[in-house]
Design brief:
Strand order of the largest sheet of chain B: 2-1-3-4
CATH topology of the largest domain in chain B: Glutathione S-transferase Yfyf (Class Pi), Chain A, domain 2
Organism (chain B): Helianthus annuus
Keywords (chain B): Transferase
Largest interface: A-B, 30 and 30 residues
Order of helices and strands of chain B: EHEHEEHHHHHHHH
Oligomer: heterodimer
CATH architecture of the largest domain in chain B: Up-down Bundle
Shape of chain A: globular
CATH class of the largest domain in chain B: Mainly Alpha
GO molecular function, one term (chain B): glutathione binding
Distance between the termini of chain B: 24 Å
Helix content of chain A: 40-55%
Order of helices and strands of chain A: EHEHEEHHHHHHHH
Strand order of the largest sheet of chain A: 2-1-3-4
Strand content of chain B: 5-15%
Number of domains of chain B: 2
Largest sheet of chain A: 4 strands, mixed
Family (chain B): Belongs to the GST superfamily. Phi family.
Helix content of chain B: 55-70%
Structural class of chain A: alpha+beta
CATH topology of the largest domain in chain A: Glutathione S-transferase Yfyf (Class Pi), Chain A, domain 2
EC number (chain B): 2.5.1.18
Radius of gyration of chain A: 17 Å
CATH architecture of the largest domain in chain A: Up-down Bundle
């Protein structure tokens, strides 16, 4: 198969990439990387992702890393099939890019730390949790105002700007942090919407 | 001459503002730099927050569009003016674009966090008379070293990060690296690595970046 994804089930960044492939109805081969045996730090994998992180991605001769670069590549290459993940109109695309950066620079920072604390990967007492919940709350306040005016972050339709959020939100909704999403009506509706998309549900059922 | 439609709001010393300025200069796009008095919390006032809901710099306007997030603004400029100024900043075909996106994301996810902490701790904190956090400095220096090792390897077989041409991926690194190399004692993180040193010396002596540094020092 032309499209290959290297990673492990349970990695947010891997899920981000798989979500885009499901939205685009692109078949792929999934190759599990054995993190326990440090496969991701060995030369064969480092040749695919020099930072030694998952995922790595191949499409024919092209190798890519960084989930948000891969999703953009998938969105552009398979523009004519599945969900429109990158808007074509230049102004709409620019606005979509703004919100993709917001996810990257602001939402991911705050939500990822809270995930790591919840998973016990990072030592976090109540002060650290409060600090990052405040950061996330400030971001979600902006989202609440945005989603009051627009059904999705980039406008009327679901795009990568929303998709990039799916993995972290999916995880956090099974923790106490979910109250931050649920207490904001437009954010809550948006979360319910994006996590019930057929592509996302198919991905949740995926087993390599 | 008519007032340029492009407006950038914020001080040139801000790394994010300077990222946008260098992109405008590389693209030869005329612009107006609008000062924002951050000491007087102008960036938190309602008129400004209307443009940038997080109350940060820069904010950006062009014709009828208002944008924020420096890397989004750079992508917009590169897409809108592909043939003006430096061509190919965001690639001329999908494969090159994918490579640029990949290294832009590496800058965002791997380079920016430790280099931003170091820039703040070593340059801005003393300026603002804030106490430095030695543990944080040590931790982030170690992180940055690992990233620069990857870059050293990459730049041994590629003139620039995404390929043979200067692109947004390289440009995005200019602001933090400038401070670290010129204004702190951490220059050798970059200059002691042969390929990274070579790359830094090439990208930092581009006329557009030199102009931004002049604006910062004005």
């Amino acid at each position: 198969m032309a499209v290959k994804v290297y990673g492990f089930i349970g990695s947010n960044a891997v899920y981000r990439v798989l979500a885009s492939l499901y939205e685009k109805n692109v078949d792929f081969e999934f190759i599990t990387v054995n993190m326990v045996s440090r496969e991701h730090k060995r030369p064969l994998f480092l040749a695919r992702n020099p930072f030694g992180q998952v995922p790595a991605f191949e499409d024919g001769d092209l190798t890519l890393f960084e989930s948000r670069a891969i999703t953009k590549y998938v969105a552009r290459k398979y523009a004519d099939q599945g969900t429109e993940l990158i808007l074509k109109d230049p102004i709409q695309m620019a606005i979509q890019t703004v919100w993709m950066e917001v996810e990257n620079q602001k939402f991911d920072r705050a939500s990822w730390k809270l995930m790591e604390i919840a998973m016990g990967r990072v030592r976090g007492g109540p002060e650290l949790v409060a600090e990052y919940e405040k950061k996330l709350s400030d971001v979600l306040d902006v989202y609440e105002a945005r989603l009051k005016e627009n059904k999705y972050l980039a406008g009327d339709g679901f795009t990568l700007a929303d998709l990039h959020h799916q993995p972290n939100i999916y995880f956090l909704m099974s923790t106490r942090v979910k109250r931050l999403f649920e207490s904001r009506p437009h954010v809550r509706a948006w979360v319910a919407d994006i996590l019930s998309r057929p592509a996302w549900l198919k991905l949740m059922a995926f087993s390599p | 001459m008519a007032t340029p439609p492009v407006k950038v709001y914020g001080p040139p010393l801000s790394t994010a503002v300077s990222r946008v300025l260098v992109c405008l200069l590389e693209k030869d796009v005329p612009f107006q730099l609008v000062p924002v008095n951050m000491a007087k919390m102008e960036h938190k006032k309602p008129d400004y927050v209307k443009m940038q809901p997080f109350g940060q710099v820069p904010a950006f306007q062009d014709d009828d569009i208002t944008l924020f997030e420096s890397r989004a603004i750079c992508r917009y400029l590169a897409e809108k003016y592909p043939n003006k100024g430096t061509a190919g900043l965001f690639g001329t075909n999908p494969l090159v674009k994918a490579s640029i996106d990949q290294w832009l994301e590496a800058e965002s996810q791997s380079f920016n966090p430790p280099s931003s902490v170091l820039t703040f701790q070593l340059f801005f904190a003393p300026l603002m008379k804030l106490k430095q956090d030695e543990a944080l400095i040590k931790q982030n220096e170690a992180k940055l070293e690992k990233v620069l090792d990857v870059y050293e390897n990459r730049l041994g077989s590629s003139r620039y990060l995404a390929g043979d041409e200067f692109t947004l991926a390289d440009l995005s690194h200019l602001p933090n690296t400038q401070f670290l190399v010129e204004k702190t004692d951490k220059a050798e993180l970059f200059t002691s690595r042969k390929n990274v040193g070579r790359w830094w010396s090439e990208i930092s002596t581009r006329p557009a970046w030199k102009k931004v540094v002049e604006m910062q020092n004005a």
